[in-house]
Amino acid sequence: MITLTRKTDYALISMCELTLAGDDAVLSARDIHDQHEIPLPLLMNVLKRLQRAGLLESIRGAKGGYRLARPADRISLAKLIEAVEGPVKLVRCAGAIQDGRRCTLTGHCPARRAMHKLHHHLAQTLQSVTIADLAYDQWEPQRAAEKVLSE
User: Fold this and answer.
1) Which of 72, 81, 147, 149 could link 132 by a cystine bridge, Cβ 3.0 to 4.6 Å?
2) Cβ distance 84 to 78 under 8 Å?
3) 17 CB contacts (<8 Å, ≥6 apart)?
């Protein structure tokens, strides 16, 4: 099920800061912490998750820190959320198996098909929004919704 935590907030802040800092900019966890007062241990954990997911690169050394692993317009909000929270699922039955077992209502749930459609549209919307869209405030929800619904 989709649950966005503070980790996602901190990941978004960090990725947007790196985007706005410019191409190949390197920011340390301390830089981001100092500017946004994010708890440093939690921020470092989030940055490591983003690195493991291939969204950030870690730079060692005195002027080290993190930088975007690819252009921000090629990093979707869906990938960021998945890196921090795991797979996005609107409802338990959106994945074939949840926690090693199937939902017991799957065979006779009256809302299943509608919820699967809604899940699909949500996933498409999250995939269509990039970190660049968010950092530069270019995302337009109405236009994105029209695009997703027309597909």
Assistant:
1) 72
2) no
3) 27, 31, 32, 35, 36
